Amino acid sequence: MTDHQPESASAVRPYPGASASQWLEGARPHTWANAFAPVLAGTAAAQLDSGASFLRALLAAIVALALIIGVNYANDYSDGIRGTDDERSGPLRLTGSGLVQPKKVKYAAFICFALAGIAGIALSLLSAWWLIIAGAVCILAAWFYTGGKNPYGYRGLGEVAVFVFFGLVAVLGTQFTQTDSISWAGLAMAVTVGALSSSVNLVNNLRDIPTDSATGKITLAVRLGDARTRQLWIGLIITAIVLTAALAAVHAPFALALLAAIFWYNASRFIRAGVKGRGLIPVLGITGRGMLIWSIIMLGASFLG
């Protein structure tokens, strides 16, 4: 099955259309913390180093938010035309539900990628021209996560990509555009955000193990199985807590960010209890909110002491 066959066949299928609230749900707001947290963390690292730049942080935030909405619509489109979302326990999908013509969802993804590219070019011109190349790689990675003939998200590499692009690249890129350098503190924050972002993606795939297995979508969760996926999730959370403690050992105000562990502990109760299917949906929001609170505290703490 190719990306084009189902789309051409869709011309005879009635599509009732989606409301604004359904388009918003399709953009998956519960994942947006994965966009804002790395920018806040990278700005905190910049402030701790030689000082933050509000304008460059704002441009980085636009890039990150446009990318994550774009990848969400791209996943909606690609999974939908493959039939992966025909039986789904998670939030509404525009394509899989039959509400919206697939090509319209694809166009929405491309519009978001274009916006990310425009903001990224502006940011690169203020910092380093070669970051335009890095931005192009990010957009390609966003599309080929579930798009194309051999998507890497179907090969168990989704969490690796999230760690790299929404952790290392996003945090260190944000810091670099503001300071023209990166620091060990920035690296520690990047790994922390990468671990937390990956945990959000991982629990999403943990929830979908039964349907993904049935449709041939071989995610990391499918490869590991239910029990080991839960163990990995807990390991990622522990990594974030340990690195935060290490950062606090050097800059004491960062210890305040350990308050975010309350969210992660609450999320872990679902994981440790063996909750499955739709019962895991709250974990996405709780973990993401904890990551966002963590990054806000880190940014505020970077101005102290």
UniProtKB/TrEMBL annotation:
Residues spanning the membrane: 54-74, 105-122, 157-176, 182-203, 232-265, 280-304
Keyword RNA-binding: no
Any one Gene Ontology molecular-function term assigned to this protein's record: 1,4-dihydroxy-2-naphthoate polyprenyltransferase activity
InterPro entries, per database record: MenA (IPR004657), UbiA_prenyltransferase (IPR000537), UbiA_sf (IPR044878), UBIAD1 (IPR026046)
Pfam families named among the record's database cross-references: UbiA (PF01040)
Keyword Transmembrane listed: yes
Main location: membrane
Reaction catalysed by this enzyme: an all-trans-polyprenyl diphosphate + 1,4-dihydroxy-2-naphthoate + H(+) = a 2-demethylmenaquinol + CO2 + diphosphate
Membrane topology: Multi-pass membrane protein
Coiled coil: none
Enzyme Commission number: 2.5.1.74
Locations listed in the record: Cell membrane; Membrane
Family classification: Belongs to the MenA family. Type 1 subfamily.
Stated role: Conversion of 1,4-dihydroxy-2-naphthoate (DHNA) to demethylmenaquinone (DMK).
UniProt protein name: 1,4-dihydroxy-2-naphthoate octaprenyltransferase
Organism the protein comes from: Corynebacterium suicordis DSM 45110
